[in-house]
Amino acid sequence: MTPLLAVEDLTIHFDTEDGVVHAVDGAALAIGPGEVVGLVGESGSGKSVTALAILRLLRPPARVTSGRIRFDGRDLLALSEEEMRAVRGARISMVFQSPRTSLNPVLPVGRQIERLLVRHRGARPAEARAQAVAMLREAGLAEPERRARQYAHQLSGGMCQRVMVAMALATNPRLLIADEPTTGLDVSIAAQILDLLRDLGRRTGAAILLITHDLGVVARLCDRVVVMHAGQTVEWAPVRGLFHAPAHPYTRALIRSIPRVDRAVAMEPIAGVVPSLLAPPPGCRFASRCDLVRTQCAAGAPVRTVEAEHRVACVAVAGV
Amino acid sequence: MSLGAVVVILVVALSAAAAPVIMPYDPDEPDAEHALERPSLRHWMGTDLYGRDQLTRIVHAGRVDLLVALAATAIALSLGSVLGAISGYRGGWTDQLLMRAIDTIQAFPSFILAMGIAAALGNRLSNIVIAIAITHVPIYGRLVRGEMLRVREMEYAEAARTVGNRRRRIIFHHLLPNCLPPVVVQATLAMGFAILTVAALSYIGLGIRPPTSEWGAMTAEGAGYIVSGEWWVFLFPGTAIMATVLSFNLVGDALRDVLDPRMKGV
Q: Which sign, positive or negative, has the C-alpha torsion A25, A26, A29, A30?
């Protein structure tokens, strides 16, 4: 299967006054058409930066220093700015973590969707209006005609996120990047939004890259998972494989750190701190926190296959 | 208080607009027999050296003063907002260049600069508008730049980029409208200041030329008669300037309280 999106060896540096921050180091991930892939990791692990790099929206001091981002057979990093604008919003769209502040406060929400349809679909104003309302209805908003005329501050957080999802999928994109789409929403609304994402994703055939630090969200929504730590991708696995047989020591620690209510297991926080990305240690960046650390770790972690579709970047894990 | 200020502005603006219809005298026609008359029932605010009715002239002067101030404010606001928006959004050397240009304007005391421009260009009505507009551009430029620096980091700015908008569209359609509330307040306050500048320029003879009636010029004319006891010649036009400028400031303050509650009472 040719992946819809394949990120290979992506390296992103931030030039700061204190030196170069190695924010992302050789990250790799792939998403098939219609697939839902979770990108998990703690804050600062490079998830959002990777997402912005895919859309080529990184701004100085951040820059992509190497890597390839193939989308639909084309290398996004090689496209002109003009071609890239035609990709953004039309072929790849994005949902952000704070829905209320991601909507422009001075434009009615319906108008924001209309503009997008006019821009990318060449829709006439009247059809754009009808389509915007139809999209809002699909996104599960009651009274979509009235809502379309309202402003972001007149809607609740959950409604705003529905609007964002409607907007993201209005142009029928092939890939939807959702960056922490449920942060700041209460759990029941969050669950509804996740269901909405999955349903609309299925209906429109869009693949979803879901960025989150919440493994519960991953379990609910994703087909496959990519785990990031300190700018490195460390494990790629189907959801079941990840939860039943996590291979990378970091993933294992991550799963042990989930509080459980159904079992009498103590929640274990992960020892140590994320290494400074200003002068990261060579090789595996988890080495300083890892129980299984050995001398080869400093030389880098080869990617090994543990099972079909389950790969891990670690020297301490036996491959197949 | 601010309601009273709105009423004052409305009265001045409406009477100025309707001046030729509502005022019984010709503002520029001399009447030597009635020169320097005290306020009376025939001439509520007295007459000047040439026997012209003061009230008529003050109302007619409102046309000139308000129009010049409004035009100057409109030009300065448009130009300043565009420059400030580009400067704030793009940053880097564009920002440096535009901001240093604005610093250069601000390096001069604004009234001296307005005087210089008016003197250099010649004191035609349009030149006075230009002079005041130029001195006011920095006010809006800096304000909008500051707002733009804030809103360009907002998530809806990022969202506007994610959906493939052009930069021009992002700046002017998505972000600039979000920068405007403080600009509205500033424009109201600056409007009062612009009126003051027109009057001051005319007072020193660099503004509107006689015989066109203008508050500052009328006050200047009247100033010579204070010692000889003809107080009404300078008092009424002077009061018109003060009341109008004060009203614009009060309205500006009230608007700020509404649009930006954090600044309340400051």
A: positive
